[in-house]
Amino acid sequence: MASRRLVVGSLSVVVFLALWQIVGSTNLIRSDLISYPSEVVATMAKMASTGELGSNAWVSLNEFFVGFVPAVIFGIVAGIALALVRRLRLLLDPLLIAIYQAPIIAFIPILVVWFGVGTTSKIVMVFISAFFPVMINTMTGVAQVAEPWTRAVRSFGANTLQVVSKAILPGSLPAIMAGMRLGVGRAVVVLIAGEMYVSVMGIGRLVQVYSSAARASEIVVLVVVISTFGFACVSFLRWLENRIGPWRQELEQ
Amino acid sequence: MRLPEPLLLGITGLVLFVLLWQVAADHGLLNPTILASPSLIASAFVTQWSSGQLPADLKVSLTEYALGFGLSVVVGIAVGIAMGLNRTIEYSLDPFMWFLYSAPLIAIYPLIVVWMGFGFATVVTVAFLLTVVSITVNTVAGVQSVDPVLIRVVRAFGGTTRDVILKVVLPASTPLILAGLRIGLGRALIGVVLGEMFGANAGLGFRMTVYAAHLRTADVFVPLVVFIVIGVASTQLVGLIERHFQAWKA
User: Fold this and answer.
1) Can you list the pairs that A50-57 forms with residues at least 24 positions away whose Cβ atoms lie under 8 Å?
2) Is B211 part of any domain?
3) Which positions 99-128 of B are in contact with A (Cβ < 8 Å)?
4) Average pLDDT estimate for B133-140
5) According to the model, what pLDDT value does residue A246 have?
6) Contacts A–B by Cβ distance under 8 A
7) Segment A140-168 mean pLDDT
8) Has residue B217 got a pLDDT over 70?
9) What percent of chain B has pLDDT over 90?
10) Domain boundaries A36-252, corresponding CATH code
């Protein structure tokens, strides 16, 4: 069955690309509005060879990781703390839920006012976008394992540090990873939107530049680059999850 | 009557947060150009509301939100049922669903503006594209979770495809479809904000960028708070409906 999925799936992608190529290259639909695959490939090669793609991608990558890594670390710590200290969680709950369920995109203008047009505001955007999903998921995950696991480990004489490292962290790993995957998706969108809103350099800035020039093929190239990055991050996290906790695989089936 | 502890602490937290913010602002710890105090934001809210600006923007944003979400629900559930019942349709649409779900749709907004025109239609399209996949994917999962025996029973008694869908598939997949709707509501709101910030000249998202460009921070916070309220309220509402159906199912 899996092979039929693959065959039908690839076939439909090939048909789509072929139609796009024909419609675009013969100008059936104005090719400056939709471009076509061979032009996109040529444009990508050109943008890569001039270094335009590389230098802007480097800026965006930096912003992403400088914001994302602390967001994960602080998110996990805050999530565990809130899950274990019930009163604190109840006190902050409405505020956290409000920020978690709010469209983070709407914070972009105010963050630019606070942190400027450069990379700092983008790093903060990435941080906020990733911090809350990681924290909320960690909190939920820890709350689910905390009771039975903690008691089991405690009854063997473990101290608080051991309880956290031996029971709580491994037990809530799947939830934490799910939070990180969610965080990657949100952070990428907000980062690109933030760069498009105002920035000096970055992939989102390129999108804005080419969009004002209505250059479809460059925009498609950038969309492909951004999607590939998001896909690579999520795949890496899945790989990492299986490396750290291979026992989970059977559970997921 | 005593309030339950979670509610009591939650309200205390919110009040404390606003109070601390206000006190800090009153003592000159916050630069009002950078971070306006709650009282300044409240008075900005009143001014914007009575001038008619806020209601007008709110109406635009809510209409776009409702339309973008409504279209996604209709298309998402229809396509989801088709994909859930027919393997060939599922396999051939799968790669595109995947792409639409993971692609940064924000980056193609310039193309959408060219196709749909600046403003209302573009915002609705962005909201639709962001939302439709999560509803479709959840509907597919819901349809495929339906016990095939039930479908065969309806068929054996001479039920048409229409009967199968209306009497078995839709009711049985309601919980998963509702979960998709809840995710979709959040994404539709993001779509509205994105669309308005970049491709419109009306609505709360557009107004926010105007205020920000003039460094009117108290004014920026008003649409921001309204967006937060809409986001929380709509998610909670679907959450309530979801719990109702879970209770009914159990």
Assistant:
1) A52/A206, A53/A206, A53/A221, A53/A225, A55/A201, A56/A201, A56/A202, A56/A203, A56/A205, A56/A206, A57/A203, A57/A225
2) yes
3) 99, 102-104, 106-111, 113-115
4) 92
5) 56
6) 152
7) 80
8) yes
9) 41
10) 1.10.3720.10
| Domain assignments of chain A as residue spans, ordered by start | 36-252
C-alpha–C-alpha distance, residues A251 and B15, integer Å: 43
Q: Of A94, A192, A234, which is closest to B104 when you measure between CB atoms? A: A192
Distances (CA, A) of B91 to A10, B84, B87, B88: 9, 10, 6, 5
Dihedral angle of Cα B148, B153, B154, B156, to the nearest 10 degrees: 120
For A68-81, the pLDDT digits (tens) are: 999 999 999 999 89
Comparing CA positions, the residue from A64, A231, A181 lying closest to residue A173 is A181
Q: What is the DSSP letter of A107?
A: G
Query: Which residues of chain A are within 8 Å of residue B228 when distances are taken between CB atoms?
Result: 98-99, 101-102, 106
* pLDDT score for B59: 96
The complex's ipTM works out to 0.80
At B236, which CATH number?
A: 1.10.3720.10
> pLDDT tens digits for B2-27?
667 778 888 888 899 999 999 988 88
Structural domain that includes position B131: 39-249
Residue type, B84: G
Which of A187, A152, A177 lies closest to A66 in space, CA to CA?
Answer: A187
Q: Say whether B114 and A33 touch across the interface (CB within 8 A).
A: yes
Interface touch A106/B108, C-beta < 8 Å:
no
B43 contacts B216 by C-beta, under 8 angstroms = no
Question: What does the pLDDT look like over B59-87, one tens digit per residue?
Answer: 999 999 999 999 999 999 999 999 998 88
Domain count, chain B: 1
In a domain, B213, yes or no: yes
Q: Is residue B1 part of a domain?
A: no
**Across the interface, do A98 and B228 touch by the CB < 8 Å criterion?**
yes
Is residue B27 included in any domain, yes or no?
no
- Measured N-to-C along each axis, helices B170-199 and B53-85 cross at an angle, to the nearest 10 degrees, of 140
Contact between chains at B193 and A105 (C-beta distance less than 8 A): yes
